[in-house]
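Sequence in, structure out. Go.
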Amino acid sequence: MRKRCIDPIIRWSHRLICVSLGCLLILAGCGGQEVASPSPTPSASQSEAAPVSGGSMTIVMPNNATLKPLETTQRELVDLFSLIYDSPLQYDDALRLQPNVVERWSMSEDGLTWTFVLRKDVTYHNGQTVKAKDIVACINELKKIEEDENRDSIYAVNMDLIASAAAVDETTFTITATQKTNRVLAALVFPIIPDTTIGTSLPTGCGPYKVVSNDSGKVLELEANDSWWKRTPYLSKITVKGIQDPDTALTSMDVNLVDLVHTDSLTASGYKQPGSRDVYEVMTQEYECIIPNLQNAKMQDVQMRQAIIAALDRKTIITETYLWHAVTVDAPVPPDSYYYDQTQQQQHEYNPGKATTLLGELGYRDSDGDGFLDKNGEKLTMNIIVNENTLSSARADAAKVAAQQLQKIGIDATVTVMTWSDYQIALQNGNFDLAFAGFSIPKDGDVSFLLHSTRGTYNYGRYTSATMDSYLDELAAATTEEEVMAGSSKVQHLWSDELPVISLYFKTNSVVCSAKIKGIPTMRDMDIFKDIDQWYILQQGDENKANAPE
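Output:
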C-alpha cells in the first residue's frame, strides 16, 4: 500500500482521505465454517407514531461533485451512494461487518482463500440480477486505483490485502489474500455496479433508491426502489441538492430548503429547535492525540508521559475548542466500537496534583521560584508543534489550551503553529517534544501504522517495543472474533501502560435533521442512512400521537 498522509479528514471539501479508514477485524468463517446473513427486522420507536409510506426529504451533497461511485474521495458522497448502491458487506450497530448482498462466506484452512456466495434475489434498478462478475470487476478497479499514485478512493482502502479475485459462477466468487488476515472482509464495503459501467457517472445501482432525474449533478431526484431485496423504504422520494459548503447548507435549513445536513461545523448544535429540528451527534474515527518524541531523553521515562496526561484537562479542551464535539478516550479505539475495551475508560483522569508528584519523583523542582520546574539547573521545557488548518483552528487552539495547562504545573510549554510542509519536516526530523496530530483509526485498535517498529509509517515518536510489535502482529493475523478481541485488548492495555502516544479524544460530527423525519434508530459517520428503510415522515395530525404519554 502506498503511503498516505497524516491528518487527512476534513468534511465537505475536495480533500482526500489519506489515512486508512477501515482495517476492521470481524468474525469470519474459518476452516470451512460459513457465516450467513440475518433477516432484516425494521422497527420504529414506541414513542413515535406508526410509520406510513410516502413523503419526501431534501438532503445536500458537495456542489459539482464527481459522481463516479468507485472513485469518490469525498465523505459526503459515501452517504449519498449508500442510498443508490448496495454493498457486499455492511456494518452492524456494533460496528462489526455482516453479510449483505454477500449472503455467506468461508475461509480456507491456510487463511488465504476466501469463497463468497451472493444472495439470489438482488437486482439492479434496471431489473438485471447482481452477479459475482460485477463484484469482481469492482474489486479489480479499486485495486487499480490503490496502485495508482495519481488516483484515490475511500473504497480502495485494504485492497492491497487482495492478491486476486475471480468469479466462479454467477453467484460465487473467490478472493486470494496476500496474507492471513480476516481484514480482507473490510475491503468488501463498496458500491456494487455492473461490470460494464466501471468508470461511468451514476451507473445503475441496487440500493434502496434509484435515480429518476439528474440535473448535471446539481440536483438529483431519487425514488424508493420497490424491488429492493430488503424492503421498500417508507420515504417515497429524496431530493439531493448540490450546495458548496456546510455553512450555506445549514442556513438553507432556516428557510426550509433542506431537511438534513451532515456536517462537522462546531456551530451545528445551535440549530437544534425543539419540535422543528433535531441534532444527532455521530461518532467518527477521527482520533486526536499528542505524539511524544521518545528520542528526547526527558520523554523516554513513562512517568513523564504519565505526568503530562494527568496535567491535561481534556474535557476543558473539548469544551473550549471543539464545543463538546468530541469524546475523551484512553485508547486508540472509537468508544462506540465493539472492540473498545471498556476497562480502559477513565484510566487517565485529570489530576494536576498527581502530575506534580510524578515530576517531583523525577527530580523536578522550582528551585529558583520563577514558577517553572527545573532539574540540575535546567528548566523543564516542552516544545509543542501543531499544523495550521485554513478551515478550522480547533486543533491549534487545543494545543494552546494544553500548553496553558502544562504551564500551571510548572512546565514551560510553548506552541509553534506550522505550515503543513514545515510540520511534516519537523515530524520526520524529530524537531519537537510533543506534536498534536490526528489520524483516522481502525475500529479494532490496530495501530501498527502508528506504533510498530518496522511497519509504523507514522511512528514519528520513534516508539520501539518488542512486546507491542508482537501484539500488533497477533492482531493483524487474527482470523476469529475471539482472537481479534484478545489481540485488540492486549494492544489497548499496553498502550495505556506505556503511553507511547497520549490519547485525547475522538471527534464527533452532527446531523441536523428536520423534526418531521422519524424512525431513525442509529447513525454512523459515512453511513448515516444505514437504516433509511425505517425513516418516515411524521404525517400531519400525528404530532399528538407521537408525543402522547404511554
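Check: The CA atoms of residues 318 and 324 lie 5 Å apart. The two ends are 55 Å apart (CA to CA).
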